[in-house]
Amino acid sequence: MSHFLLGVLGGMGPLATVDLLQKIIEETPADGDRDHAPVVAWNVPQIADRQRALAGSGPSPLPALLAGIEQLNRVGASHILIACNTAHHWYDQMAAASHAPILHIADATTQALRQRPAARIGLIATQGTLDAGWFQRRFAGLGSATLLPRPAEMADWFVPGCYAVKRGELRMGGEFFDRLAAALVSRGAEQLVLACTEVPPGLAAVESSYRALSLDATRALAHAAPCLWIDYRDNNQLHTRLSE
After folding, report:
1. For the chain, first and last CA: distance in Å?
2. Average pLDDT in the 19-33 region?
3. Can you list the alpha helix ranges (DSSP code H) found in the chain?
4. Is 240 a residue whose pLDDT tops 80?
5. Average pLDDT, the chain
6. How many other CB atoms sit within 10 Å of the CB of residue 116?
7. Apex 18 CA angle, 106 and 34, nearest 5
8. Domain locations in the chain?
9. Hey, which CATH number is domain 107-217, 3.40.640.10, 3.30.360.10, 3.10.580.10, 3.40.50.1860?
10. Hey, how many other C-beta atoms are within 10 angstroms of the C-beta on 119?
């Protein structure tokens, strides 16, 4: 690879994008500025609502997603991360249109779960992500059963929590998510996977005790990105030394 540049497809919402960028920094071992990965973010929130599109009550976000991928390719991104779980419903179309490989958030989460196995995993995500089944299939491959929120829990807690965070009302959203986490744990979840980018900031805002049982899919994706950067950085330094 002749260059390295992480591209982040964001705007879904802006807070989720900043959260991913912050976690990329936190997950990167560094002694100074130059040790961090170069990153460019397309944080444009004028994009159709993913949940409503998948529910059949709104337009598709795919044209805007492809436009963002095009911009990231134009500036030379060598790898692309998507700062939204639900947007991965259109992963195949985006991957086909991109010159750069796109990391899948469910793959990064599965890799993280290998370090902390659990027999029963509670999954907190949008209905579109739950229906797509990416996480459930990967959990099954690890030998883990998936516990899903009930319809009433999605309607009463998840959806209001998600849109509260998007409005900037993080504590309100966190209180809804905390109730949902408690319900899943009460039904036997040994670990929770937070597979919606609004959930971790919400739970952090209320200092939820369930964070200790949770694996943040955003952080798993953030961890995967510096691993690619470190491999590139170390190999590039080696090639430089050999050519001297």
Report:
1. 20
2. 94
3. 14-26, 50-54, 62-74, 91-97, 105-113, 127-132, 134-141, 151-153, 159-166, 170-186, 199-205, 217-243
4. no
5. 93
6. 9
7. 95
8. 6-104+219-243, 107-217
9. 3.40.50.1860
10. 11
pLDDT greater than 60 at residue 242: no
Domain 6-104+219-243, what fold? Rossmann fold (3.40.50)
**Residues acting as catalytic residues:** 84, 196
Can you spell out the DSSP letters for 24-81?
Answer: HHHTS--SSGGGSPPEEEE----S--HHHHHTTSS--SHHHHHHHHHHHHHTT-SEEE
The amino acid at 171? R
Find the mean pLDDT for residues 29-58.
Answer: 94
Buried b (16+ CB within 10 A) or exposed e, 182-211: ebbbeeebbbbbbbbbbbbbbbebbebebb
Distances (CA, A) of 146 to 54, 104, 151: 22, 19, 15
pTM above 0.85, yes or no: yes
